[in-house]
Specification:
The protein has one domain: ABC transporter involved in vitamin B12 uptake, BtuC (Orthogonal Bundle). The chain contains 13 helices and no strands. Helix 1 packs antiparallel against helix 9, helix 1 packs antiparallel against helix 11 and helix 2 runs antiparallel to helix 3. The radius of gyration is 19 Å and the shape is globular.
C-alpha cells in the first residue's frame, strides 16, 4: 500500500506539468491558433526559472520568470501568425527549434548549479491519514493550483461572456468581427496567456519536479501536452484527466523497475510516447467526432 501511495503521488506530480501546459494550449486552440512551439517555450521557461531560483532563492520569482519567458516567446509567435499571417505550423515548429537551441546555449553555466534545500509541503492533519495522506496531501501547492485552474478555465469557457467570445473567435472569426469584437487582439491575448501557462509548466519542471537544469529536460512533454488537447477534445476537465493518465504511464516505468520487474529500461522509457501514439490512433479512427468538437477555425488565418 505504501508503494501504491507513492505511485499515486508521483502520478499527480508528473501530471501537473502536462495539465498546466495543456490548459495553456487549450486556450490558444479555443481562440483558433495552433501553437506547435510548446516544447521550446517550456525549455526556455525552464532555464529562466532555474536561473532565477539559483540567483534569488525564490521559487515565486522563478515561476514569474518562467511565465514571463513563455509569454514573451508566445507574443513573438502571435505577432507573426496573427498580424503577419505567417503559417502557424511552420512558425510553431521554428519557435520550438529556437527554444531548444537557445535553452541549451543559455543553460551551459547552470548545468552544475544546485538549488537550496527544498521545502516539504503537506496539509496538516490530512497528511497523516494512512495511504490517502501520502498519496494526496503531501504535494507542492502547484499540484492543487493546477486543479483549481482547470475548474476556473471550465467556468470561464462555458459560464462567462468573455469565454463565449473566445470560443466564438475560434469557431467563426468573421462572425465575431462582424459583431464588433477585435478578433486579432483577442487571439493575441489568448496566445500570450497560453504561453505564460506553458512557461509556468516549464519552470515547475526545473524548480520543483526535478530541481536541476539538464539540456533537453522537458523531454517531449510539450509534444505530449499538444496531443493531450486533441485527446481531451478541447475540454479542460478531460485535459486534467488525460494529464494524470499520461503522468501515471510515465511513473509506471520507475515503479516497475523498483519492484524488480525484468523489462529492459528502453521499453519502459517508451511507455509515455507509445501511449500518446496509441491514443491519437484510436481518436483518429473517428474523424467526425474530432471535427464536431474541434474549433472550426483552428489553424486558419484571419484578416479583417
Amino acid at each position: 500500500m505504501e508503494s501504491l501511495a507513492l505511485l499515486v503521488a508521483a502520478t499527480l506530480s508528473a501530471g501537473t506539468v502536462l495539465a498546466i501546459a495543456g490548459l495553456g494550449l487549450l486556450i490558444n486552440e479555443r481562440a483558433g491558433v495552433l501553437n506547435l512551439g510548446a516544447e521550446g517555450m517550456m525549455l526556455v521557461a525552464a532555464i529562466a526559472g532555474f536561473a532565477t531560483a539559483v540567483t534569488t532563492g525564490s521559487d515565486l520569482m522563478a515561476f514569474a520568470a518562467g511565465m514571463g519567458a513563455g509569454a514573451l516567446m508566445a507574443l513573438v509567435f502571435g505577432l507573426l501568425v496573427i498580424w503577419l499571417n505567417t503559417n502557424q505550423y511552420a512558425s510553431g515548429l521554428a519557435l520550438s527549434l529556437f527554444g531548444i537551441g537557445f535553452s541549451a546555449f543559455a543553460g551551459i553555466r547552470f548545468t552544475q548549479e544546485k538549488l537550496g534545500p527544498r521545502f516539504k509541503f503537506e496539509i496538516p492533519g490530512l497528511a497523516d491519514i494512512p495511504f490517502v495522506g501520502p498519496a494526496l496531501f503531501k504535494h507542492h501547492p502547484m499540484v492543487y493550483i493546477a486543479v483549481i485552474m482547470t475548474v476556473a478555465l471550465a467556468w470561464f469557457l462555458y459560464r462567462s461572456r468573455a469565454g463565449l467570445v473566445l470560443r466564438a473567435v475560434g469557431e467563426s472569426p468573421d462572425s465575431a468581427h462582424a459583431l464588433g469584437y477585435p478578433v486579432r487582439r483577442i487571439r493575441l491575448l489568448a496566445v500570450v496567456v497560453g504561453g505564460a501557462l506553458c512557461g509556468l509548466a516549464g519552470a515547475y519542471v526545473s524548480v520543483v519536479y526535478t530541481p536541476l537544469w539538464v539540456e533537453g529536460m522537458i523531454a517531449g512533454k510539450g509534444w505530449i501536452a499538444l496531443a493531450l488537447t486533441t485527446f481531451a477534445t478541447w475540454r479542460p476537465a478531460r485535459i486534467l484527466l488525460g494529464a494524470y493518465l499520461f503522468g501515471g504511464v510515465t511513473m509506471l516505468q520507475f515503479h516497475l523497475q523498483g519492484e524488480g520487474v525484468q523489462i529492459p529500461s528502453q521499453w519502459l522509457s517508451m511507455l509515455p510516447y507509445l501511449a500518446t501514439v496509441v491514443v491519437l490512433v484510436l481518436i483518429s479512427r473517428n474523424p467526425t467526432w474530432i471535427r464536431i468538437n474541434m474549433p472550426a477555425s483552428l489553424g486558419k488565418p484571419f484578416a479583417p
